[in-house]
Amino acid sequence: MDVLSLIGRDAPLFDEDLTQHREALAERVAGGRFLVIGGAGTIGQAVVREIFRRNPAALDVVDLSENNLVELVRDLRSSLGYIDGNFRTFALDAGSVPFDALMREEGGYDYVLNLSAMKHVRSEKDPYSLMRMVEVNIENTLRTARWAREKGAGKYFCVSTDKAAAPANMMGASKRIMELFLMRESESVPLSMARFANVAFSDGSLLHGFNQRILKRQPLSAPNDVRRYFVTDRESGELCLLSCLLGENRDIFFPKLSERLHLTTFSEIAERYLAALGYEAVPCASEEEARASVETMAARGQWPCYFFASDTTGEKDFEEFYTDDEDLDWERFQNLGVIRNPAEYDADQLDHFLQTIHDLRAAGRWEKGDLVRLFHDMVPEFAHKETGRYLDGRM
Questions:
Q1: Which residues belong to any copy of the Polysaccharide biosynthesis protein CapD-like domain (predicted)?
Q2: Interval 148-174 mean pLDDT
Q3: What whole-number distance in Å separates Cα of residue 281 and Cα of residue 220?
Q4: In terms of C-beta distances under 8 Å and separation of at least 24 residues, what long-range contacts does 139-142 make, across chains too?
Q5: How far apart are CA 249 and CA 193, in angstroms?
Q6: Which of 115, 134, 206, 224 could potentially form a cystine with 38 if both were Cys, beta carbons 3.0 to 4.6 Å apart?
């Protein structure tokens, strides 16, 4: 199935920039020692593949999912084979004691890339998942950035999100807070980031769910009023690599908007997806009707769909990569924009955030409102959209 056509495009985004900087990318990877944290998720695997195919001197990959690490190795061996350098994988949590022990090994890294994240808007439904989001998206980022410095890295890269621009949900706000913390870390280790769109068919995404629904003979369900930008998994890996290797300190890369990247609704993609499989999408009036109609519709080349207006917490009608008050560089790359950031931060505010999180955790009990208020203090432009409804209440 052609993913580009499903998301409404006919050409990859970054080919011109990759061609223009091919030699610089190849030279930096070939002589480099890399650590990729969260390297077995969809974006992480794409990044690892981009590094691996350019023959690094060393490549270590850390991820919580041992199953995904196994598949990563099988995929690389079955497609690209082997590299001259050392390639290792570790089933570890970047916030754990075993990870710290790995970091104390002799030898360092030239580049540390952190792709680990809690990325789902649905994770803000309860205070416990929210605290885990703080741990993964903010605290573990600080830990790994400091380990990058200790290991002598010349560059630390961390993935952000388009949802960090004018955030409307806790996930996006957590990534915006992460960006603020990294402004302070940038004084001791050079770093760059990337904000990018939804990665089409990434693990856990709605489009990945389409595959699962077809396999399980279940209806498709999608909002018809939420517009999103989409990139392919390979494009996500290319964007991260370009930012890591070519970004200046504190740069945040993002895809330029053009005729090749435009907002698309999930319901439009569902219709194209089913057409590519030979089915006609048939909207149903309710979830119950859709669930009851699969076999009868499938027999005549149709597939039931439940399309609805979004009413869940944290959803924006559309997404953006930057805000009007950010300093933008449109000239450096053909299809990439760059947000240039000064080394400005409020140290007292950052320390207050960490102390408050420590105190809440030490108390052993906290409410979602405690974290929402703290996030608002850190990000005054945070326009939290709380509806009382969450994606776990949807089909």
A1: 35-282
A2: 94
A3: 9
A4: 139/95, 139/354, 139/357, 140/94, 140/95, 140/114, 140/116, 141/114, 141/178, 141/181, 141/182, 142/181, 142/185
A5: 9
A6: 115
What range defines the domain where residue 169 resides? 18-198+231-257+324-347
Q: How confident is the model at residue 259 (pLDDT cuts 50, 70, 90)?
A: low
Measured CA to CA, the distance from residue 84 to residue 134 in angstroms comes to: 38
pTM of the predicted protein model: 0.92
- Residue 80's alpha-carbon distances to 2, 95, 163, in angstroms, are 22, 31, 34
* Residue 126 is assigned to a structural domain of this protein: yes
At position 262, the amino acid (one-letter code) is H
Angle at 348 between CA 347 and CA 349, to 5 degrees: 90
What lies within 8 Å, CB to CB, of 282 at 6+ separation is 293, 297, 302, 303, 304, 305
pLDDT in tens, 25-76: 999 999 999 999 999 999 999 999 999 999 999 999 999 999 999 999 999 9
- Find the CATH number of the domain harbouring 187: 3.40.50.720
User: In this model, does residue 260 exceed pLDDT 70?
Assistant: no
- Please check whether residue 98 lies inside any domain of the structure: yes
Q: Is residue 175 part of a domain?
A: yes
What are 200's two structure tokens? 């089409």
CA-based nearest residue to 111, from 304, 272, 242: 242
Q: Does residue 242 lie in a domain region?
A: yes
Number of domains in the chain: 1
Of 17-26, 164-173, 181-190, the range with the lowest mean pLDDT is 164-173
